[in-house]
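ERR on first pass: missing label on line 2. Operator R.T. fixed the label and resubmitted. Corrected input:
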Amino acid sequence: MLDKFLKSPIFKDKKTWDAVGNASVIGLHLVSGVLVGLFIGYWLDVWLGTKPWLLLLFLLFGIAAGFRNIYLEAKKFQEENTTTNHDDQG
Amino acid sequence: MAGGGLPHPLLLVVEGFHSVGLNVPDTVVNAWVVMGIMIVIGSMATRKLAMVPGGMQNFFEFLVGGLESFVVANIGEKGRKVFPFLCGLFVFILIGNLIGFVPGFDAPTANINTNAAMALTVFIYYNFWGLKLWGPGYIKHFLGPFWWLIPLMLPVELISHLARPLSLTLRLFGNVRGGEIVLVLLFALAPVVSTFPMYFMFILAKTIQAFVFFMLSMIYLKGSLEHAH
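pass 2 clean. output:
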């Protein structure tokens, strides 16, 4: 019975599952960069007494980091697509 | 009761620990349960190793073999060194997620502390590998492609690296805990009829979450194992 289960078509569809995994990652990657940037900026402001300049600066860095994460994700998608296309041709 | 405040009927092992008077946090007890299950299943699978695998051994060869080929296809041959860590993480999270569905048990991953511990372990582990492989040159991973971009790229890279454990923690916590809350609420509205189909959906979702955690750890390790570019 286990053998049958392991050979069932759900496991054949690996590309779809990989894509589901990849897609579910994007949202938090965008947000977490911003949150960490904000936190570092706030903390540095409290520490150095430079309210509110470092918070703004690091918020911008955080936003940049968030979008950079998205850019890297997109690049990864593209690489996976090109490799699978090569597999199909070969 | 436990589950971080969600009404749970009766948590066998947690109650057992309380009745003996051991004041271990519930999450830790739940994580120990998962560890115990992993040890028992692991020893059961490897006790009678056969050339033609059957039963438990067959399943684990499918699981571990599939994951290993996935890791090697993504990282390359270097991936075999870090594979035991990744595979252990995956199996732990998978069992931890799914045990939340078993009456009398609770998911250790439904508590943010377990997830934060795992995410920080991943963070330290991939930085450890980066430092071990590249030494001081590991800093090049943080500097971006051009030297004149360093003032911009260094803080951005540092923030995006620090954001990784945060997003790992929150994603797993949110999905597992959210699933449990939905089940509890639906059970209050319409017992069994509404929760039964949701069980299948959450089994699927939590398996995917375990895989996502594993995949992201793999990608982070890949980033520190390969050359900076």
